[in-house]
Amino acid sequence: MQTALVWDPALLGYNLGEHPLDPVRVELTIALARELGVLDRDGVELVVPAPAPEEALLRVHSAEYLTAVQTAPHDPFWSGFGLNTPDNPTFDHMHEASSLVCGGSIAAVEAVWSGRTQRAANIAGGLHHAMRSSASGFCVYNDVAVAIARLLDMGAERLAYVDLDVHHGDGVQAAFYDDPRVMTISLHETPLALFPGTGFSEEIGTSGAEGTAVNVPLPPGAGDAEWLRAFHAVVPSLLRAYQPQLLLTQCGCDTHAVDPLADLRLSVDGQRASYLALEKLAEELTGGRWVCFGGGGYGVVSVVPRAWTHLLATLTGQPLDVTIETPDRWRAFAAERRPSARVPLAMTDGGNTEFTPWQRGGDSVDRAVLATRRAVFPLHGLDPDDPRD
């Protein structure tokens, strides 16, 4: 197993200030993964990213928007392009920091597509809300879309992107909504209850790409069993039908029960189970070629470091035992970095990851699943009403 992990402390420069998207969550993830030996495993290559070149950013964003990102931090009265808002405040060196995140995601996909490594991750990435000409949802540049565009330019013909974030992956969907070479699948809390207000099951793609945008909107309160039921009712069948060359996943962990910005109820154990399921699908369908990005997650001490350390452990070929304790030295570091936060003592929440399969005539989760299946399964030759498909 060869895995490229993108990391440089300079990535912490994507810092919106007093804001839910706190870069300490990435710092604490790297520290926890290092303490547990994940970063020192055989075959793991730490990759220091370079900023994305302007031509790579222009594959996804408009020239006018790039100019705005470079200009806005110098104007305290700036208005427009989604910048200088509560969600997307401007900050010093915003263009440079955002370009570096994009460069990290480009480095990750290039490592895998070239065959240098089988897997890769940029946990500082996953900024999936940014649009062509506007910032949105804490995201300035859409590093995921930039990385996917780079893969297409290198000759990729079938890419599958699965978004686990509690919020709809709207920016990535929008970037490839009419491109049949990219399948985007997003599982998220219903847009009736949560930002960004998109991601209904009827959003399926357009202009010859119908069926390559897939959305599974879940009701507030869905926990491990309900989320995993929905995932397994939709994702494996569609990926098997689509036969991607490479699997990309945005692994936002704001689906957690204690996350302050949303209303799903997953545990770290349920999130770990989703990573294990994705690994199996990558092994089955893409020869193990798998690229992961970070994303949302606002339990910056109690959730994100544990969830993403489980992700990195899975990605590098050996999942961690959930029963292990967090190392004393990491606990002390976390308490030093955020003194008021609750520091977790173990890598588990004690969650139960068993679930019953999807069935017709079930609860609100089953109804959401059926709506998604009926919207897209027939476009891939699958029977939406047959649980075997």
CATH architecture: 3-Layer(aba) Sandwich
Mean pLDDT over the residues? 98
* Beginning-to-end CA distance, first to last residue: 31 Å
Return the domain count: 1
**If you compute it from the alpha carbons, what radius of gyration comes out, rounded to the nearest whole angstrom?**
19 Å
Order of helices and strands: EHEHHHEHEHEEHEHEHHH
Number of strands: 8
Rough shape? globular
Q: Could you describe the 3D structure shown?
A:
It is a single chain. The protein has 389 residues and is an alpha/beta fold. The protein has one domain (3-380): Histone deacetylase domain (Arginase, Chain A, 3-Layer(aba) Sandwich). It is 34% helix and 10% strand. The chain has eleven helices and eight strands. The chain has an eight-stranded parallel sheet, sandwiched between helices. The longest helix has 20 residues, at 94-113.
Topology:
Blueprint: E1 3-6, H1 24-35, E2 44-47, H2 54-57, H3 63-71, H4 94-113, E3 119-122, H5 143-153, E4 159-163, H6 170-175, E5 182-189, E6 213-218, H7 224-242, E7 246-250, H8 268-285, E8 290-293, H9 304-315, H10 328-337, H11 364-376
Parallel strand pairs: 1-2, 1-3, 3-8, 4-5, 4-7, 5-6, 7-8
Helix pairs in contact: 1-9, 1-10, 4-5, 7-8, 7-11, 8-9
Pathway: Ketone degradation; acetoin degradation
Domain Histone deacetylase: 19-314
Pfam family, one: Hist_deacetyl
Task: Write a short abstract of this structure.
This protein is of the alpha/beta class and 389 residues long.
Features:
389 residues, 10% strand, globular, alpha/beta, single chain, 11 helices, Arginase, Chain A, 8-stranded parallel sheet
